[in-house]
Amino acid sequence: MAAASAADSSSFAEKSSIKSRTMLGDGSYTLATKGCFDVIANAMDIADSALDAVEMPSGRHFVLADYGTADGGTSIDLVSRVIGKVRERTSADQEVIVLYEDIPTNPFGPLFQMTQGMLALPGGRTSFLAKHPTGVFVHAVGTSFYRQCAPTGTVDFGMSFTAMHWTSAVPCPIPGTLHSVMAPEEVRARYAAQSGADWAKILEQRAKEMRPGARLIMANFCVDDKGCYLGYTTPHGGPSANMHGLFAKHWAELRDSGRITAEEFDATNFPQHYRTVDEFKAPLEDETSAAHRLGLRLETIETRRTPCPFATAWANGEYSSPEAFAKDYVPTLRSWSTSVFVSGLSESRPVEERNAIVEEFWGKYEAAAAADPAAHGMDYIHAFIVVRKESA
């Protein structure tokens, strides 16, 4: 669940992303995010169909780009699958460049260690380099995907999973809560406007990079037609606790007890927006948009729910106790959101004090999860999108 920065290096979103990544520079992001493997597995059929439509290279290398890659662990199965299918359609020694993109402070060390087989992957997975030891070249680009990340017209196949919901700026405070998905309508509208401009810029840059005939697949957090989103899927039969509601509740308890100030609570805003299907479609169907003028077209879009693996394991009786469930479940929430809580606290506090406050917050969340495991779970709601590049 990568955090993407904007071109403006002073933005809250970028600062939040930087803090998140520097805390996860040992491969622990992959180990803490079991559900992200399931999301990508949920996209395999979409990826296969999209790749089948791509014309294979003749006399040149094939470029595969992974945007918002984090430490590269969660997408490693799909990267291996794409390389194998490309070589099935071309030759066993077809050269492939795997281009990993993320912000400059991303843990690229663990990324390279994972691809080289030097860090353990969950489930006995191995790197694609074990299967394809020659002719596959791993490159990384430390550049925000709000900018062009590859030379014009060079990418054959792109992918991005759970990365493009981070906004480039916080358009306004969110009164009484922490995330725009639970904010008043006028606040949600401002986040939607910011997110719309960001999405248009992201697509414009991808349109520049892609070859004519290339495909880009994305799984982005969304709000579906039932009003469900990450951590709130009750209408689909998911857990009853609203994750973002609990974030706000436990953070407010620290405010009300005097542990944090009202100003710090108000400064804690997730720089995110979960788009609707119509919001995803807009710049791809608008003939005046930069992406459309550059030849980017929507092929398919659909929403899917991916159940939380921890909640599923609890329901199946796989945990020895409620406490064991909570200790296993909460780290996946921490892996992508801790930076937001740290950023909300005053920098006049010593770092140790800020860290202690955030640990106290997570202690509250873990206790609540242990008290009622059946209510808890971070089900994913994604829009799975395929776009193609036509001649401009």
TrEMBL record:
> Which keywords belong to this entry?
Magnesium, Metal-binding
Decide whether keyword Metal-binding is in the record.
yes
List all membrane-crossing ranges.
none
Does this entry carry the keyword Nucleus?
no
Which top-level group of life is the source organism from? Eukaryota
Q: Name one Pfam family in it.
A: Methyltransf_7
Q: Which GO terms describe its molecular function?
A: metal ion binding; methyltransferase activity
Stored InterPro entries? MeTrfase_7, MeTrfase_capping, SAM-dependent_MTases_sf
Which protein are we looking at? SAM dependent carboxyl methyltransferase
Species this protein is from: Cafeteria roenbergensis (Marine flagellate)
